[in-house]
Amino acid sequence: MRTNTPKLHVAYTTMAHVFSDDIKYYVCPSHLPRSAFNSLSFNFFPPNALSNIFSFFLSFIFHSFISICLGLLISIYLSIYLSIYLSIYLSQSIHIYLYIYVNIYLSFFLPRYFAIYLSIYLSIAVYSYLSIYLSIYLSIYLSIYLSIYLSLSVPIYQSI
């Protein structure tokens, strides 16, 4: 025998409706009327205007990040080239204060973070170069001094 009473469904159904501005996702029991589950809508995607603004800001941030990274890479390669060139030049001739002048010049005209790294690198290079320079020239001066001292002191000792 058939009755006209509606059966209650325990399972839930989902319905997706596409509108012009956004996508609404409805979750509703199938036995409720349409007016009851229209109030249970959840927005999963923002409106088109908001998504356009968001994509504009993402592209702006991406392009500015790329330009900053390219500028830093160019300045890094330039400073590496300058430091290699200066180290070769300074190893061939004796210009100690050129490192300090280059460090001051580069700290004013390069970005601050990069100038900090470059000044640390240049200070280490200056200290290593000065230690080699001082050890070589102090040994030369010491040997000259000892040779002069010995050449002067030996005749004095022989005369006594």
UniProtKB/TrEMBL annotation:
The portions of this protein that span the membrane are 53-78, 84-106, 136-157
Q: Keywords, A to Z?
A: Membrane, Transmembrane, Transmembrane helix
Domain of life assignment = Eukaryota
State the name under which the record lists this protein: Uncharacterized protein
